[in-house]
Amino acid sequence: KDWKVYPVFHIDFNGGNFTEKGILQKWIDGFVASWERDMGFEGNRELPSGLRFIELLRYAHEKTGRRAVVLVDEYDKPVLDVLDVNKDLEEEHRNILKGFYSVFKGADEHLQFVLLTGVTKFSQVSVFSGFNQPKDISMHRA
Predict the structure, then answer these.
(1) What is the C-alpha R_g of the chain?
(2) Distance between CA 48 and CA 30 in Å, rounded?
(3) What is the four-CA torsion angle of 23, 29, 14, 112, rounded to 10 degrees?
(4) Can you give the residue ranges of every domain in the chain?
């Protein structure tokens, strides 16, 4: 069997404590900067992280000839960490995640697939307004 190697971008929010303002954006910026280094891509640091990620996905697709795979662990943790504790930060996190996750729609031609895990149903977190609602294949945890 010929195994195809795809560019993979893994985001893991599991280890983060997102109860402080600014931490979520730093994490996302850190992921993007790390991927840019790994791919040898000089991204425009002046652009928002979402646009940088779209450019990186395009670059990875062109460089490898394969569309990228994006894996997001605990996609909802930044919102859950502040849910019902800090409404302002909860709303800020929703907006940051909406902006970042909308990348998936804008970069569709460069994506093989996107897999998100979390504990909340997609419709309850409301971070996907810029993105066609994904089908809830299975939201069960092992």
Answers:
(1) 15
(2) 12
(3) 150
(4) 8-125
- Looking at residue 10, its amino acid is H
Instruction: Please tell me the pTM assigned to this model.
Output: 0.82
User: What distance in Å separates the CA atoms of residue 6 and residue 10, rounded to the nearest whole number?
Assistant: 12
Alpha helices, DSSP H, located in the chain: 23-39, 49-64, 77-80, 87-101, 103-106, 122-125
pLDDT tens-place values along the chain, 142 residues long: 888 899 999 999 998 999 999 999 999 999 999 999 999 999 888 999 999 999 999 999 999 999 999 999 999 999 999 998 999 999 999 999 999 998 998 899 999 999 999 887 655 455 555 444 444 444 443 3
**Residues for the chain: how many in total?**
142
Pairing of strands 111-116, 8-12: unpaired
Q: How far does the chain reach from its first CA to its final CA, in angstroms?
A: 30
Distances (CA, A) of 117 to 14, 70, 101, 111: 10, 11, 13, 17
Contact 58, 39 (CB under 8 A): no
**Which two three-digit tokens encode residue 100?**
């970042």
